[in-house]
Amino acid sequence: MGYYTGKKILIIGGTGTIGNGLIKELIKQEPEVIRIFSRDEYKQFIMENRLNDKDKFRFLIGDVRDYERVERAMNDIDVVFNLAAMKHVPACEYNPSEAIKTNVIGMENVIKAAMHYNIDCVVFTSSDKAINPANSYGATKLLSEKLVQAANFSKGTAKTKFVAVRFGNVMGSRGSVIPFFKKQIEENRSITITDPEMTRFMMTLSQAVKLIMYAGERSIGGEAFVLKMPVIKLQHLAEVVVEETCKKLGVNRELVEINNIGLRAGERRFEELMTREESEFAFDLGHMYAVVSLAHSENLREFYNKYDRAEIGSYNSSDINVISKEEVRTLLIEEGLI
User: Fold this and answer.
1) Are the beta carbons of 274 and 315 closer than 8 angstroms?
2) Cα–Cα distance between 88 and 75 in angstroms, integer?
3) What is the Cα–Cα distance from 54 to 313, expressed in whole angstroms?
4) How would you classify the pairing of strands 272-274 and 315-316?
5) Taking Cα atoms as reference points, which of 187, 172, 179 lies closest to residue 21?
6) Is 182 a catalytic residue?
7) Which of 11, 20, 277, 303 has its CA at 20 to 30 Å from residue 31's CA atom?
8) In whole angstroms, what is the distance from residue 319 CA to residue 326 CA?
9) Three-state SS string across the chain, please?
10) CB atoms within 10 A of CB 125
11) What is the Cα–Cα distance from 305 to 129, expressed in whole angstroms?
């Protein structure tokens, strides 16, 4: 049926929005087993009760910071998806040592355990904030990417391929701004935005899941895959969510205020998905880019030379035309987010 058919799969940090979406797609290919590894027992309980094919799932409580627990979880596994991370930008900014423990040391633990068991493939989910990082969260993701790329070329006799995917903002995911806006409207009849001119790369949950699964199946090892995605303006997003939520609640739109509160700690007005330097070693796969490691590019370039080279330049949300407000509305309605 597919690459994941009959495979034994471990999803680290698998109880979040991306984990739930990934499970729905993986189960269609009939893997032998899916292990969910996370530290939140309540979320595991909720997920277990919601699943239909319970025989295929195993739930393991543990923390990616704990190497021994990660190693035990990975025993007899074929494919690993590492979704675990501290993601909240201000929280990482004020607690950088904790972000390092989860995002960097946790990734190192996954790499070591994967080599120990000779896993087929490890897919790491990175972020646009890893590019020219302006905050602690982005810096930890950048370092984790470097660990993943280096692992692919220093693994000795292990067959494991290590690959990264870079996400933009995943619409409707836990901690994303859309459910936060809706909650503010319901409770306070007002919303807060940090900067109306802020731009962000946006991707749907289905796009995020397809990107992860593509990376596991089609990668050579050592790449970072970057989806081509639209850029939206925060002001447009806020206005659409307010208008559509007010319609559903029967609330007068004029009664809901949009308040600008300024940038939070570690935030910036735009994001990047690929630097100019990286673009010189990137290939255009049509709907995405494959960025190969500058330090270890020779073998990968031989494979990807059949594709066109990426256009040289920074893939930057401040340089790309934003989609219109009505296009934002259409996108949110199609995804069932408003």
Assistant:
1) yes
2) 31
3) 47
4) antiparallel
5) 172
6) no
7) 303
8) 20
9) CCCCCCCEEEEECCCCHHHHHHHHHHHHHCCCEEEEEECCHHHHHHHHHHCCCHHHEEEEECCCCCHHHHHHHCCCCCEEEECCCCCCHHHHHHCHHHHHHHHHHHHHHHHHHHHHHCCCEEEEEEEHHHCCCCCHHHHHHHHHHHHHHHHHCCCCCCCCEEEEEEECEECCCCCCHHHHHHHHHHHHCEEEECCCCCEEEEECHHHHHHHHHHHHHHCCCCCEEEECCCEEEHHHHHHHHHHHHHHHHCCCHHHCEEEECCCCCCCCCCCEEECHHHHCCEEECCCEEEECCCCCCHHHHHHHCCCEECCCCCEECCCCCCCCHHHHHHHHHHCCCC
10) 24
11) 28
Tally of CA atoms within 13 A in the half-sphere of 173 that contains its CB: 24
Number of other CB atoms surrounding residue 48 within 10 Å: 14
- Please report the pLDDT score of residue 307 as a whole number: 93
Q: Which residues, other chains included, contact 336 with Cβ-Cβ below 8 Å and sequence gap of 6+? A: none
Q: Which two tokens stand for residue 217?
A: 């199946």
Region at 250 (left for phi over 0; alpha for psi -120 to 50; beta for the rest): left
Q: What is the reported pLDDT for 83? A: 97
Residue 108 tokens, joined: 């190192």
Residue 116's contacts (CB-CB under 8 Å, 6 or more residues apart) are: 71, 74
Q: Which residues of 89-107 are buried (b: 16+ CB within 10 A; e: fewer)?
A: bebbbeebeebbbbbbbbb
Cβ(149)–Cβ(124) under 8 Å? no
Q: Exactly one of 7, 87, 129, 141 is catalytic; name it.
A: 129
Of the candidates 116, 103, 93, the one whose C-alpha atom is nearest the C-alpha of residue 146 is 103
The answer to whether residue 301 scores a pLDDT higher than 80 is no
Report the C-alpha gap between 54 and 3 in whole angstroms: 21
pLDDT of residue 139: 97
Strands 190-193 and 8-12: unpaired
pLDDT tens readout for residues 244-266? 989 888 888 888 889 888 888 88
Residue type, 167: F
**Residues, the chain, total?**
338
